[in-house]
DNA sequence: TCCCTCCGATTACAGATGTAGTCTTATATG
DNA sequence: CATATAAGACTACATCTGTAATCGGAGGGA
């Protein structure tokens, strides 16, 4: 049911992934001010996310409390897979290789990833 | 100038990243048949990619030869960075951690990445 | 020479997206 | 009690995308 979360919708999900449930007004307060959104825009995003099943809402007096229905990790997994499929032939290693070539890995990143991989090995 | 390459446009870029220059008809032949596109659709994509500066074309008699202006690696870098910024707080290590947790790394991936990282270290 | 065909250019049109504005209704306040 | 507000519901509208169809001109065959 949750087809695709657009970039704008993602900003709303981000807020609710950090803290939920929240009212529409509370979500609007927490949206990255850099977007310069009016609260109407936030309400539109909430309505669209509800319609596509990414959020649930429960009544709280005469307003709603919104809560995510998709987990951030699930969404991240889907998006990562799409990127890897589209750009790296479906395999993760070329993505890491790519990041490495582009110097997008700090020494700290490298250390962390090595530790991770070590832990993964049988 | 190359703002965003949509999913459909990406299918066309993929063909031209593999082989260029090509005529519109040649691109159409090479598009993944799974898309079921008419050649009109391919022409539309070519026109849009031209307009947004992702392709160049040169005349060849009464038709054009198209070639990419953005490199696949550059595009991959931009898209990877966007994903990492949006979903992983701008750091690559959590992405790899995430792939690991989701069992999206095969033993071969792990071996390859380890070798890569080893080579990166001073 | 005249028409058919193949190409690019232009136009179409519905659904998604960004970005709100207006309508309706149920409280809260004077 | 009457009315101003504030929430959600519905509507708006331009742009981007997917997916073509149509128009107009240049070459090639009859």
TrEMBL record, chains A, B:
Keywords: DNA-binding, Transcription, Transcription regulation. One of its GO terms (biological process) is negative regulation of DNA-templated transcription. It holds the Pfam family Penicillinase_R. It comes from the Bacteria. The keyword Transcription regulation applies. Coiled coil: none annotated. One of its GO terms (molecular function) is DNA binding. The keyword Lipoprotein does not apply. InterPro entries: BlaI_family, WH-like_DNA-bd_sf, WH_DNA-bd_sf. Belongs to the BlaI transcriptional regulatory family. This is CopY family transcriptional repressor.
């Amino acid at each position: 049911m949750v087809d695709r979360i657009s970039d704008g919708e993602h900003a709303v999900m981000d807020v609710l992934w950090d803290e939920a449930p929240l009212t529409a007004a509370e979500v609007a307060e927490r949206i990255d001010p850099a977007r310069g959104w009016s609260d109407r825009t936030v309400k539109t995003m909430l309505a669209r996310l509800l319609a596509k099943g990414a959020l649930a809402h429960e009544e709280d007096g005469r307003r709603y409390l919104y809560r995510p229905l998709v987990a951030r990790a699930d969404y991240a997994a889907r998006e990562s897979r799409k990127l890897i499929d589209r750009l790296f032939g479906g395999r993760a290693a070329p993505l890491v290789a790519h990041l490495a070539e582009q110097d997008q890995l700090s020494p700290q990143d490298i250390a962390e990833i090595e530790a991770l991989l070590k832990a993964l090995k049988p």
